[in-house]
């Protein structure tokens, strides 16, 4: 599985950052690739919650079922997406330098077996990394006053 990681420091309290970054229903506001999310079961505040999320990487939108593997506000949200892509992500917020450090790591399995893995290595890796970094920059702009 290709692994991507991006880190950014945001000049805002961790609780404030996590209230936006760790809320999947708000991720469409700052990410470049998550279009919308809806909680389908659970309380939206604990592991085991499920959601349906529409993502767009490249020209097509795809719907994924998502299960929250870990949720510990205001520190960690870890989810697993299944559908067109298999994605495991972890978003972690830690106190740093009077603000918050956000670390976002994503592992994904591209579709189409070996052909998909080659395509991911050759073309999609840089695109996906750019999407993650741009999304964190959007989050920073939204939260810093």
- The helix content is 25-40%
Major sheet strand order: 1-7-6-5-4-3-2
Mean pLDDT over all positions: 88
- Overall CATH architecture: 2-Layer Sandwich
Instruction: Specify the number of helices.
Output: 2
Radius of gyration, rounded?
15 Å
Indicate the multimeric state: single chain
Task: Give a verbal description of the structure.
This protein is of the alpha+beta class. Helices cover 27% and strands 46% of the residues. The chain has 2 helices and 7 strands; from the N terminus they run E-H-E-E-E-E-E-E-H. The model has no long low-confidence stretch (mean pLDDT 88).
Topology:
Blueprint lengths: L2 E8 L3 H8 L12 E8 L8 E8 L2 E13 L3 E7 L3 E11 L2 E11 L3 H31 L2
Give the gist of this structure.
The protein has 145 residues and is an alpha+beta fold.
Which terms summarize this structure?
alpha+beta, Alpha-D-Glucose-1,6-Bisphosphate, Chain A, domain 4, 46% strand, seven-stranded antiparallel sheet, 27% helix, 145 residues
